[in-house]
């Protein structure tokens, strides 16, 4: 057995998760900073440019979260379970299958957003200069959607082996390149023309191109645990199914998450472009929590998946609750800090009083409930490793229903932005509680029952219950 696989099966859980997650979290922050840096420089172009980016951002994050978290989680889970069960040939073959899936989904995103992006941003409240900015940025980003999908899929393959270091190093190197490249292309310098908001999108695509080439080179090198081959592997439906049964369910959850943000953006659009810019800028902090929790969730997927593949179901469950406690502590601390000091975040991206006011209202309404978002998200990753995603999807759909219906009713009954944002906060609470209660009630090991005593739950953990 590979030493990294043995670590996931035998080493102390808390210490191992922290060891794997700490550099991963730092790197995910670095990756998220690419978008923040881009937003910072685009904000210098004016409120309309910032509002245009806010319109596109939920769709960009939908692609990011689907490729890295949903389908990427399915890929990592499949690789981890194959290695845990000793199926090395299947683990090697999963690399090619993951790349085929990435190409198909990347092409689909490009076609849909290039053809229907302008209509979508209009429905979300875009108009005038902000709509033009959104359309320009969207066309450039989604023209290169395949690069985003390939990068995240190859990184997921490597993380599925328990190797967090290589994707981390590639991400950091990419950030070092894109930090000066983004303002250079946005504002121009010397012979380089000023491309405006399109320059930010082009810099982002160059980042993913660089990362994809490096990750592919690693996988086909002697340093890789996996030994993929284009010539010796035939495409097999069972391996596609193993990825897709988790990835597609996870995608439903991801769509629900981003629809919640898109609906809130649309509701804020009724209060003007400054409200869209304020909400979009403030909600970027919520999106920043996603890579933070992903930094913890990626090793949790590998650990839970490897333990499930090896039949160590009780260890997988213990790892899940330890991860949930870590995620709550991290995200709740950030949410409380944002609620107390909202200006420190919002002033990074603009100084328009109306934008600052709307963003402050959001952070003070929703920030104190970020801990529940962190719990729901990390339990989603753990469920990917277990191959059981029904309740995480249900929790996300419940979040969408509360956010959309609550926001709509707030406006219909004469409420303002404060009431719309209160609905978003309540939705996060529902999200975390539903998923945690389901897993605690035995959702991974048969029919859910509340309350579920620990002894009763452990009796359900029988070899072969979970594939």
The averaged pLDDT comes out at: 84
Number of domains: 1
User: What is the end-to-end distance?
Assistant: 20 Å
Percent range for helical residues?
over 70%
> What is the oligomeric state here?
single chain
Give the topology string: H per helix, E per strand. HHHHHHHHHHHHHHHHH
**How would you sum up the major sheet?**
none
Strand runs, count: 0
Q: Per DSSP, what share of the residues sits in E-state strands of 2 or more residues?
A: under 5%
Molecular shape? globular
Number of helices: 17
Main location: membrane
Transmembrane segments: 21-43, 49-73, 94-117, 137-158, 170-189, 195-221, 242-268, 288-309, 321-341, 361-382, 389-409, 429-450
Protein name: MATE family efflux transporter
Subcellular location: Cell inner membrane
Provide a compact summary of the structure.
With 467 residues, this protein is mainly alpha-helical. It contains 17 helices and no strands.
What would you note in describing this structure?
It is a single chain. The protein is mainly α and 467 residues long. The protein has helices at 3-10, 13-43, 47-84, 88-123, 128-143, 145-160, 165-187, 197-219, 237-269, 273-309, 313-340, 342-346, 353-366, 370-386, 390-412, 417-440, 454-460. It has one domain. Helix 3 (47-84) runs parallel beside helix 6, helix 4 runs parallel beside helix 9 (237-269) and helix 9 (237-269) runs antiparallel to helix 16. The chain is globular, with a radius of gyration of 21 Å. The two termini are 20 Å apart. It is a multi-pass membrane protein. The chain crosses the membrane at residues 21-43, 49-73, 94-117, 137-158, 170-189, 195-221, 242-268, 288-309, 321-341, 361-382, 389-409, 429-450.
């Amino acid at each position: 057995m590979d030493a990294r696989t043995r670590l996931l099966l035998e080493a102390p859980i808390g210490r191992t998760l922290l060891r794997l997650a700490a550099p991963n979290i730092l790197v995910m922050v670095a990756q998220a900073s690419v978008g923040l840096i881009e937003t910072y420089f685009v904000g210098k172009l004016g409120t309309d440019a910032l509002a245009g980016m806010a319109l596109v951002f939920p769709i960009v994050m939908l692609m990011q979260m689907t490729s890295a978290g949903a389908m990427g989680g399915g890929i990592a889970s499949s690789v981890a379970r194959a290695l845990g069960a000793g199926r090395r040939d299947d683990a090697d073959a999963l690399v090619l299958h993951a790349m085929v899936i990435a190409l198909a989904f990347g092409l689909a995103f490009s076609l849909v957003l290039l053809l229907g992006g302008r209509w979508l941003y209009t429905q979300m409240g875009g108009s005038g200069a902000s709509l033009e900015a959104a359309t320009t940025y969207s066309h450039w980003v989604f023209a290169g959607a395949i690069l985003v999908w390939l990068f995240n899929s190859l990184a997921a393959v490597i993380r599925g082996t328990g190797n967090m270091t290589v994707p981390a190093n590639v991400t950091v190197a990419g950030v070092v390149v894109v930090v000066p490249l983004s303002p250079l292309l946005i504002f121009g310098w010397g012979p380089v023309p000023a491309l405006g908001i399109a320059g930010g999108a082009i810099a982002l695509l160059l980042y993913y191109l660089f990362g994809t080439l490096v990750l592919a080179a690693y996988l086909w090198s002697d340093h890789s645990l996996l030994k993929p081959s284009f010539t010796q592997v035939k495409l097999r439906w069972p391996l596609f199914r193993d990825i897709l049964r988790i990835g597609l369910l996870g995608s439903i959850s991801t769509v629900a998450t981003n629809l919640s943000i898109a609906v809130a953006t649309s509701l804020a659009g009724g209060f003007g472009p400054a409200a869209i810019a304020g909400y979009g800028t403030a909600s970027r902090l919520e999106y920043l929590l996603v890579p933070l929790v992903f930094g913890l969730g990626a090793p949790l997927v590998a650990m839970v998946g490897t333990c499930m593949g090896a039949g160590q179901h009780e260890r997988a469950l213990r790892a899940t609750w330890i991860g949930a406690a870590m995620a709550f502590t991290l995200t709740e601390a950030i949410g409380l800090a944002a609620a107390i000091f909202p200006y420190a975040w919002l002033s990074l991206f603009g100084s328009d009083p109306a934008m600052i006011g709307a963003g402050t209202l959001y952070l003070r309404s929703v920030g104190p409930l970020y801990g529940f978002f962190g719990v729901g998200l990390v339990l989603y990753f753990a469920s990917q490793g277990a191959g059981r995603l029904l309740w995480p999807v249900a929790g996300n759909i419940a979040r969408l229903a509360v956010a959309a219906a609550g926001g709509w009713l707030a406006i219909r009954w004469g409420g303002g932005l404060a009431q719309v944002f209160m609905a978003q906060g309540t939705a996060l609470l529902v999200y975390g509680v539903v998923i945690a209660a389901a897993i605690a009630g035995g959702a991974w090991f048969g029919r859910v029952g509340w309350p579920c005593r620990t002894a009763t739950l452990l009796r359900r953990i029988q070899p072969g219950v979970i594939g």
